[in-house]
Amino acid sequence: MSDVGAGSAADASTAFLDRLLKAGVLIPMGADGVYGRGAVFEHILEGLDALATRAGAGDGAERVRFPPVMVRRHFEHSGYMKGFPQLAGTIHCFCGDERAHRALLRCMEAGEDWTTGQAASDVVLTPAACYEVYPMLAARGGLPEAGALVDVMSWCFRHEPSTEPTRMQLFRMREYVRVGTPAQVEAFRMDWMQRAVALIESLGLPHTIEVANDPFFGRPGKLQADIQRSQQLKFELLVPVNDGAEPTACLSFNDHQNHFGALWGVATPDGAVAHSGCVAFGLERLTLALLRRHGLDPATWPTPVRGVLWRP
Amino acid sequence: MSDVGAGSAADASTAFLDRLLKAGVLIPMGADGVYGRGAVFEHILEGLDALATRAGAGDGAERVRFPPVMVRRHFEHSGYMKGFPQLAGTIHCFCGDERAHRALLRCMEAGEDWTTGQAASDVVLTPAACYEVYPMLAARGGLPEAGALVDVMSWCFRHEPSTEPTRMQLFRMREYVRVGTPAQVEAFRMDWMQRAVALIESLGLPHTIEVANDPFFGRPGKLQADIQRSQQLKFELLVPVNDGAEPTACLSFNDHQNHFGALWGVATPDGAVAHSGCVAFGLERLTLALLRRHGLDPATWPTPVRGVLWRP
């Protein structure tokens, strides 16, 4: 299929999206990449979420759930706008009085742009589930000998409207985040790459693991992406979802080195800057991969796959 | 306690918040009303969510889960900015090139306001879980004889930073939404008021039900609130959470009359404009009410309450 052009791939992904919408698995909400989730979709996603919990059980991870926003001050400090300005979403509010409100309503009625009067609030949409973990750990002071292991899940936002069903603007990312010495982080990442392969095989999904990079913005971003690849700081587990298109990254295994530790001032007991890494499950993408592989009706899926997702 | 002043009530609510933060039940994220949820908090909230599912089981509700955003075009059409401009959150993005990006980063480095260059995207934060239900039903055409019953849950945003723990900026709202004839909607609402009382009593929570109004903006809003009250279009189930303060609305029972049906063009089989109503569970507020009533450690809660929340 390597000679299938981009046009055909786009057609195939749109055809899959159309099937999902027609079956009510996804529900149109009026914008590309923004969908309601029908009962079938949620049932699968919840099965995957529970599977990710069982796969990490016994590791003693601290469970935290963050809302779909983070504080703007933390976001600014994170440097996200340096690397990925095109993907971020800031949240703006009306702060005026009754007179300003009347002007706003006149503006809306005239069909003019009323949003220019909105002022940036102190929160932004969460770009990745682990972003709030580092300031949380920093606020607690130094790490213990064993380092930290945190289990997080959050709705994340990426501003990239697309009819490619795996490229949603809003999606749920489940992560295990490891913070500690370089050895602790690398052992965690290698261990999870093996666990993830076993997990994906138990779901009957074809897969490959490849070196990858984040979608850094612009020409300076090209250099950052090259460094990330050459140092193998990001691996992705890819599963075919769209016919004739490249397979889709459904999990990623990331080594942040000392980036977040230095940024937030997280230290190991010997006073060194902590390293961090994470395994991230793209729950929507995994759900779509299962629907693509096994069909839109989970009742007809192979019994072993059903047994893995929904324990009897 | 009716003569306790506002100062004492504020102190008491802050004291409860402090206890929650100290115990790790909630996790500070750097802004009032924005918190991470620890394992205990999520365990209780999930129990409540499952309880709301069981309380509605057998009614044949269609289950849909929406992301924490809705499309701006729908939001504008909904009239939310007329009634509640102060609570809404629009989402803005960077749409510039590399040169604009360099300017943005210089602006951030200089500590200036970089957000003015952000442009409104086509999505806004979801203000209430049911807002996407009406355009969804409208897109399907006329209602069947039995009307529609939809089970939704969504993260919702209200821009009202506060140290009062029940007044979070981001929270999850679970709703059953009924759309059909006036009789169908009113029967649904009366039925759910009874079910909710039984449910809250099974959780050992003291409660009252009162006529209420939405927080309409400004002086014209006062009139709308008065009409809503005089017509008893909104009831709230209140539970004490903060010492010395008014009890907190944890559920609401709403009759929208033909507001959303007319707005979106939803009709009953006889061609009349559909009425709608909903019962809304404030999952964070109910979780806080349980923590306030039974203590911060669910292992010590009364056995019957534990049995209701977490079926053996």
What's the overall geometry of chain A? globular
Q: Examine the secondary-structure arrangement and name the CATH architecture of chain A.
A: 2-Layer Sandwich
Extract low-pLDDT stretches of chain A. 1-6
Order of helices and strands of chain A: HEEHEEHHEHEHEEHEHEEHEHH
Helix- and strand-based class of chain A?
Answer: alpha+beta
Number of helices of chain A: 11
**What's the multimeric state?**
homodimer
- What is the fold-level CATH name, i.e. the topology of chain A? BirA Bifunctional Protein, domain 2
Neighbour order of strands in the largest sheet of chain A: 3-7-8-12-11-10-9
Average pLDDT confidence of chain A is: 95
Main sheet summary of chain A: 7 strands, mixed
Beta percentage of chain A is: 25-35%
The largest contact between protein chains, plus residue counts on each side, is: A-B, 69 and 69 residues
Supply the CATH class of chain A: Alpha Beta
- CATH superfamily (homologous) name of chain A: Bira Bifunctional Protein, Domain 2
What is the straight-line distance between the termini of chain A?
39 Å
Beta strand count of chain A: 12
Compute the number of structural domains of chain A: 1
DSSP helix fraction of chain A:
25-40%
Using the CA coordinates, give the radius of gyration of chain A.
Answer: 21 Å
